[in-house]
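Writing this down once: the sequence line spells out the residues, with the fold written below as integer tokens. I am pasting one below:
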Amino acid sequence: MGSKKIYRNASLEAKRLRDVRARKADLRLKDRRYAERRALVMRGEKLLASLPKASRRFGDALLVALEKSKLMGNDREAQQRSKAIIALGRMHEKWVRKPERWEPSTYNAERQFADLLRFVLAKWPVPKWLDQAWLDGDKVRIKWWLLIARGGNLRHAQGLPFPVNRKLAHAIMHAPGDEVVEVFRYGQITYAGASAGLRSELMGSVIGRRFEEAARESFYDELIRFFVTAERDGQMALFDLEQVGPIIDYLLFQKFGTGETAPEQPGLSMKKRTLEGVLRQTQAWHDALREARRPQNLRWEPAKIDDVEFDEGVEANKVTVTVVQLTTALELIAEGRAMSHCVGSYAHWCADSRYAVFSVAVDDERRMTVCVNVAERQIVEARLRANRMPNATDVRRLRVWMAKTNLTASKWALPG
């Protein structure tokens, strides 16, 4: 059927017009795809032009790979990937394969980037959790990536957060997770011999959230071994695992103090201590926090995370859930007293904008306290009265708040 010929027959003419519109749409789609591809190529050319002259010809090889991919797209991580690609071009002497021979096996830009890195640089498998080092421009952890890619052992890497031997390196390399801190802590705790329940509580405590300076890291290791030994010796048979976090908070407060207070026991050691004795001291400390009467004038700017109020259920079962940020030491102390836990000791972390603490109420009655890592917008701890874990209903309500405020939750913070 000719596209220019006009038919007298109405049905034939309608068919011709549909064909014409379809061909024009197809041409527009091809033009748009060509323009997008050309824009990607131009961005790639501009990016690789910033390489030193000695590396330009290697940049041309990378450009061939970029033209096949979506790595130079307009997504949120494109700028980070651009810097990583420049770093990849600068270390051309470490290439084990030519990038122009790489063929993407997925349309996802994140997976394409991971695949390209391994194709160009790796002789041995590299765990996914190390890829973030390239996007962050973390030179120390990029060296870890390259060491493993060449078949080296993690224990030989420079700048590790704590000493690593062969067996510990094996445990870390086989630990689940997508983040460096999570993987290292999981491996460290598993290597020490913790059960799954104890490991979960340790990962959900302050120990599982970040790396610290050498002295605190050494004490973290001592604490992990203390709990594992107590579990192995049967001291935890009648012990509620949910008390692990509060005990750790107490011991860290005693040994290191806070930004506002000096440590009470800077020489504190776990040698010759029993779990029963430490728990008794922890409970006494919590009681003292709840009974504290001295003025607390510390206050801080609220994190940029919205308070929320929403209704749940219908008719007779309808309840109102409110989530409110606490922004003074007095509010934290009041929350700790009402909920029988130690959130009152978190004031210095909140003042440093490291964490934000929220009180969750149901029909104006306190129900749960939530701690959020401000930089990562991630819930790292959620506890009911007396440090009990939230139930399925509490988690569902938290997820409503998370959706409204663009928050995530650590896998160790919430049950299930």
